[in-house]
Design brief:
The model is unreliable at 1-68 (pLDDT under 50). The chain folds into two domains: 1-67, no CATH class; 69-359, Neuraminidase (6 Propeller), CATH 2.120.10. The strands form ten sheets. The chain has a four-stranded antiparallel sheet, with no helix packed on it. Strands 8-9-10-11 form a four-stranded antiparallel sheet, with no helix packed on it. The chain has a four-stranded antiparallel sheet with strand order 12-13-14-15, with no helix packed on it. It is 1% helix and 45% strand. The protein has one helix and 32 strands. 53% of the residues are buried. Strand 9 (119-123) and strand 10 form a beta hairpin. It is mostly beta strands. It has one helix spanning 63-67, and strands spanning 27-30, 44-47, 71-75, 78-79, 82-83, 86-91, 99-103, 112-115, 119-123, 132-139, 147-156, 160-163, 167-171, 178-185, 193-202, 206-209, 213-217, 225-232, 240-249, 253-256, 260-264, 267-268, 271-272, 275-280, 288-292, 301-304, 308-312, 315-316, 320-321, 324-329, 337-341, 350-353.
Length: 360
Amino acid sequence: MGYGGGSGSGGSGGSGYRRVSDDRTANLKVDNITSRDGKRGTDVDGIVEVNSTAHFIPPSGTTAERGSRGRGIFGGGNTAPANINTIQYITIATTGNARDFGDLTDARRGIAACSSSTRGLWGGGIGSPAAVNTIDYVTISSTGNAFDFGDMTVARRQNAGCSSSIRGLFAGNFPTASDIIDFITIATLANAADFGDLTVAKKAPSACSSSIRGIFGGGQAPANSNIIDFVTIATTGNAQDFGDLSEVKTELAACSSSVRGVFGGGYVAPNSLNTIEYITIASTGNATNFGDLTEKRGYIGSCSNSIRGVFGGGYLAPGGDRDIIDYVTIASTGDATDFGNLTASIQGLAGCSDSHGGLE
C-alpha cells in the first residue's frame, strides 16, 4: 500500500499534497514529493483516497517496494569447509540470481526458518562447534543484518520451521532425534515456549503450513522416515498423524500455498533425491507425486508465495554443494524450472518469505 507524501491542507502546490475528488476514481501518480519540512515522501502510483486534510508523513519507500509482497530470503548454511552467516533474497514472482541481504548474528548451518509478512526468523543450527538455541530475525522488506530475537527451549540443529502470521514453530534435532515442538510469537521478542511433541522423535524433518495447520514431514526417526505430522498452529498440544510421503527420506525441504504443501529433494544415503510430492493441507492422507527438481540434492532451503514454490541450494551426493535455485507452480504438477543462482554454492540453509501459505 502506498500513500501520498508531504503535508498541507489542500491543493497541490509546494506542499506536495493532493486531494482526490470524491468520485473515488481519480488516479494519482506523484513522484519525488518533498514536504514543507524537507522530508522525502513516498512515491505513489495508483488509486488513492484522501478524505482528511490532516498533516501526515508516510513511511519511506516506493509503492512498488511497499505495495507488493513476494520476497523470499535464504539464510545460513555451509560453503565447504566453513559455516556462513549470509542472508540473501529473491523476488519470487520473477526469475534471476539472489542478492545480498545482510548477515545472521553468527555463522551456522542446519538452520530452520519461519516468517510473518513482516519478519523472517531463523532458529537453531550448528555453529562452532555445537548446536545453538539462537533465534534471529530480520525485517523482510528491508535489507540489513539480523537481530537477536530470543532462544529456543533447547539447542538444536537440522530442525524445521513453519508459521502462521502470528506464530512460528520449530521441531526436530540432529544427531539426537527430538520430538519437541517450540513456538514463538513472531511480533514479539522473547524466548520460545513448549508447544507439544511430534508423533515420533525426528532428525532433519521439513515443514510447511497453512494459516491453520503446521505440517512436518520426513526426517529420521531414527532411520529415514516418511511420516507426516500435523498440528493446529493457534493451539498447543501434540502432533497427529497426517499420512506418509511416497518414500523415506531426510534433509528435504517444504513450502506451501494455503492449499497445498510441496516437499522437494532430500537424502537417502548415499544419494541425494530430486523427487517432488504434494499434499492437500486441510485434509489427511499420503503425498502424491508432483514432479522432479532440476537436479538431485538434499540439505536444501525453500520458500514460497501463493503461486510458486522455490528450492535453493543444497548438496548433491556425490558431487558437492549447489547454488541452484529452481521453482514450481504449486497449484499444478510438473518438473521444476530453473530460477537462477544463489550468491554461492550452499548446503544446510533455510528459507522463508513474506507471502507463504501460512499467511494467506
